[in-house]
Amino acid sequence: MAAVAELPDPETLARLYRHMLLIRSFEETVYYLFLEGEIPGTLHQYQGQEAVAVGICDMLHLTDWITSTHRPHGHALAKGVSPRAAMAELYGKSTGCCAGKGGSMHLGDPAVGMLPAIAIVGGGNTVVTGLGLAFQLRRTDQVAVCFFGDGASNEGAFHEGMNFAAVRRLPIVFVCENNLYGASTPFHAVSALVDVADRAAAYGIPGHVVDGMDVLAVREAGAAAVAAARAGEGPTLLECKTYRFVGHSRSDARGYRDSDEEAAWKERDPIPRLRAVLVEHAAVGQDEVTVIEREVETAIDDAVAFARASPDADPSEALTDVYA
After folding, report:
1. Taking 60 as the threshold, does the pLDDT of residue 3 lie above it?
2. pLDDT, tens digit, for every residue of 149-158?
3. Which of 15, 198, 275, 324 gives a 20 to 30 Å CA spacing to 49?
């Protein structure tokens, strides 16, 4: 964790903790709701990776945009999609952020600057160039952020999107969430490079490896990359080394992972790490932390109640907003 002298103010630290805890609580809740048959479809969950979404999105404006993946719950909540709208979307309700049409893998809300998530691996890596190009042509100060996994870094779209962004010096931050596995395939088995960030050199842009289990480290790296993009200096590739505590999806028993490896990464859980900083160094007492935790619990309970009480998506609206 960052040195005490470099810590943000207590209000910022409390906000980061609240947002990470909200994502974790949301994910743990929907896991059980899915097992109980309340939530249809499937789930690709984010437990363990909260520091990446929260650290990056904390440095963005409401008018900035992000693209996401088939594992989008954390990105959505971090960018400002409400727990109610996200939960209702998972339930397939008309009050969901995509009117119940997207479900778990397609969360998003243009009102808060999140393109509905793209479930195709690497799909956002070229779409984000369109966002960045639009911002550049309109001469705004907006920034586009693309979240993607290590598996996507071997897709052609990763290279095409980054090359175009680099040549045009687009205001984009590419954020690779390297959780060591593309589904069940270890990254080292499909790449001769240890670090995805090294690939940035091929396109003449900065590339940095970041501790993705430390929200303060992610936030600091994100601040620099976003500032560079906003100033017209072009894109940056950030590789956040992180770990998903759950399987690739709900049908994944994680038999390909070693229990010692899992235990070692859980020791680096970003939420208790920041909680310790809050209590020990940030003049935020235990009582204040407890209040945050209770507020998050209440927000998740409220989201579930809202989703349950909301009307189902209307089948007659299935083709509304379809453009192709």
Report:
1. no
2. 999 999 999 9
3. 198
